[in-house]
Amino acid sequence: MHELSVCQALLDQVRDTAQAHQADGVGMITVRIGPLSGVEPDLLQQAFTIARNGPLTSSATLNIERAPVRIRCRDCEQENDARSNRLLCSHCSSYRVDLISGDEMLLARVELHRAESSQNSPDPERKPSHV
55 with 19, same domain? Predict the structure, then answer.
């Protein structure tokens, strides 16, 4: 299951981002995954529960957004959605297309938590911020 190594690399990137922003923890992590990315979303979710244990991410959650397969036709120059096993232009049926999206796995959003001390309260509150 290569999703575990993908997840570990993702969490390394998230931890680096959290440290760069001096965060105390990470809340929700949102990734966008296309069906042609080679990453199985359900397996990534399972791997995440194992890999998140570590500094800053032990209570993080993973939100997966599925990206559509989008193509641009070289013949009629139209853009449209396509099925991952049928990359044909829906306007002219040409097979001469360029893939616009659907093969990506992107880190879309990271919710960071920071402890902010209030002058009136000795207990720090966790405040979310998005990167």
Answer: yes
